[in-house]
């Protein structure tokens, strides 16, 4: 699988090697918004094992499968040519609640984070299930023109899957 062509407005830009797409069922093509980021953190899952002690077993307790929790995923220093990531954030923040646009229950999405090779081949893709944005931080506005449009975007989610560039 390859990322969109450079002429595509949703394609990753320059050093922004992580391509992010937010997919919502019910939208034609399924894509709500896209962007490219220089850093991604928090692609992490942790299982807390259940410890079960058994009478007569003095060497140690049994370890059983427990609840899995997921870290908040943080996207840093991003670019996008459309404002849809901000619009998605507004749905959860209630910024447009007066206009009837407050609908977070229907707005949770799958977020795909793809690592791109410099030749634009997708190497790995992480999928965050049922994601919700919890923080949006814009870059500082300066006239230098070297700043990024999105400084940070944080997501919480309910599942993490890893796939290859072909999946």
Summarize, please.
The chain contains two helices and eleven strands; from the N terminus they run βββββββααββββ. The chain is mainly beta and 167 residues long. The protein has a single domain, classed as Pnp Oxidase, Chain A (Roll).
Oligomerization category of the chains in this entry: single chain
Number of domains: 1
Helix content: under 10%
Note the beta-strand portion.
35-45%
Can you tell me the CATH topology? Pnp Oxidase, Chain A
The name of the CATH architecture is: Roll
Shape: elongated
* First-to-last CA distance: 8 Å
**In what order do the strands lie side by side in the largest sheet?**
1-2-7-10-9-8
Element pattern in H and E? EEEEEEEHHEEEE
- Strand count: 11
The secondary structure category is mainly beta
Contiguous low-pLDDT stretches (5 residues minimum) are 5-13
CATH class: Mainly Beta
Question: Count the helices. How many?
Answer: 2
Radius of gyration: 19 Å
Major sheet attributes: 6 strands, antiparallel, barrel
């Amino acid at each position: 699988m390859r990322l969109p062509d450079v002429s595509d407005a949703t394609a990753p830009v320059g050093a922004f090697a992580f391509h992010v797409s937010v997919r919502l069922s019910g939208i034609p093509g399924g894509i709500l918004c896209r962007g490219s980021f220089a850093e991604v953190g928090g692609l992490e899952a942790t299982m807390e094992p259940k410890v079960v002690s058994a009478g007569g077993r003095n060497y140690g307790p049994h370890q059983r499968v427990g609840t899995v929790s997921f870290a908040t995923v943080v996207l840093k220093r991003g670019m996008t040519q459309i404002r849809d990531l901000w619009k998605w954030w507004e749905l959860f923040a209630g910024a447009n609640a007066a206009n009837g646009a407050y609908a977070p229950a229907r707005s949770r999405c799958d977020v795909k984070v793809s690592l791109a090779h410099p030749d634009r081949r997708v190497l790995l893709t992480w999928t965050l299930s049922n994601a919700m944005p919890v923080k949006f931080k814009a870059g500082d506005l300066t006239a230098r023109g070297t700043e990024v449009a999105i400084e940070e975007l944080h997501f919480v989610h309910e599942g993490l899957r890893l796939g290859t560039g072909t999946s």
